[in-house]
């Protein structure tokens, strides 16, 4: 049998004398959507950056399809919290920047990038510039840009945190619609418990620093998931369960941030 898509073992990270992550072990299967939640300062973003190859671990390892991750690569698409679009480039030119850097922006890649822009709901906006777009539209470009390199895994670091509440809800629904089309393996960091439950097959609940997995919560809700599922009793039970796991840590991180 093939191994897991992503295998993380005994992952540990220290910054000088600060323990950020401690011996994280997790396996992610092909096509799984995994979210990571936890209190501020528990190392969620550091964890994601190590998987992306943007940060080196102090100990332990990350394997993607059996290969050890040592540096960034085109097999991982990263959607940052800020869209970081290049203001002098059009929507299309921003979306295809990854293939361009990789030296493979031919006719096939141009067509697939246009298809991705249609998939994320930006058909007709190919020649617009970032300044002409709303926040939600800019994040759609950000997502298309990450998908344009056809990564093995999609890594997302709170991509909707800067959006207003209504736009965020719509973007969650749109992300699931897009994800359902190709079922890319996805690792999604968020502070919003309801967002994690809505999107995910599993939610990794991180404990306060040093970050470690307190519990992995399986989300047994049917797909596809309309936004109305958030109002069901079963959904609310998942949210309550995860909140109870992190409530004390969240309170401590707010009241005693330096501990």
**Count of helices?**
8
End-to-end distance, in Å?
Answer: 45 Å
Shape: globular
State the low-pLDDT regions, or none.
none
Rg for CA atoms: 18 Å
Helix-strand topology string: EEEHEEEHHHHEHEHEEH
Number of strands: 10
Oligomer: single chain
Helix residue percentage: 25-40%
Mean pLDDT: 93
State the major sheet: 6 strands, mixed
Beta fraction of the residues? 15-25%
Strand order of the largest sheet: 6-7-8-3-9-10
Note down, in words, how this protein is organized.
- With 259 residues, the chain is an alpha/beta fold.
- It has a domain at 85-150.
- It contains eight helices and ten strands.
- The protein has helices at residues 44-52, 91-95, 97-101, 107-119, 135-147, 165-182, 193-199, 233-255, and strands spanning 6-15, 18-28, 33-37, 59-64, 67-68, 76-79, 153-157, 185-189, 202-206, 213-218.
- The strands form two sheets. A six-stranded mixed sheet has the order 6-7-8-3-9-10, with helices on both faces.
- Helix 4 (107-119) runs antiparallel to helix 5 (135-147) and helix 7 crosses helix 8.
- It is globular and about 50 Å long.
- The model has no long low-confidence stretch (mean pLDDT 93).
């Amino acid at each position: 049998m093939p191994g897991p898509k992503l295998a993380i073992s005994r992952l540990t990270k220290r910054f000088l004398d600060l323990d950020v992550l401690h011996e994280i072990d997790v396996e992610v299967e092909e096509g799984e959507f995994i979210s990571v939640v936890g209190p501020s300062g528990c190392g969620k973003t550091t964890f994601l950056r190590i998987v992306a190859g943007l940060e080196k671990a102090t100990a332990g390892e990350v394997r993607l399809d059996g290969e050890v991750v040592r540096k960034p690569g085109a097999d991982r698409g990263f959607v940052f919290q800020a869209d970081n679009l290049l203001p002098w480039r059009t929507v299309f030119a921003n979306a295809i920047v990854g293939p361009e850097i990789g030296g493979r922006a031919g006719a096939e890649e141009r067509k697939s990038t246009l298809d991705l822009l249609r998939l994320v709901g930006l058909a007709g906006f190919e020649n617009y510039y970032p300044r002409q777009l709303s926040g939600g539209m800019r994040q759609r470009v950000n997502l298309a840009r990450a998908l344009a390199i056809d990564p093995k895994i999609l890594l997302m670091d709170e991509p909707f945190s800067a959006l207003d509440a209504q736009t965020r809800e719509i973007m969650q629904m749109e992300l699931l619609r897009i994800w359902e089309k190709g079922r890319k393996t996805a690792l999604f960091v968020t502070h919003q418990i309801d967002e994690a439950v809505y999107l995910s097959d599993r939610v990794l609940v991180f404990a306060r620093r040093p970050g470690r997995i307190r519990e992995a919560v399986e989300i047994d809700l049917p797909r596809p998931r309309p936004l109305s599922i958030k109002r069901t009793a079963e959904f609310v039970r998942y949210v309550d369960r995860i909140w109870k796991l992190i409530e004390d840590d969240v309170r401590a991180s707010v009241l005693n941030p330096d501990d």
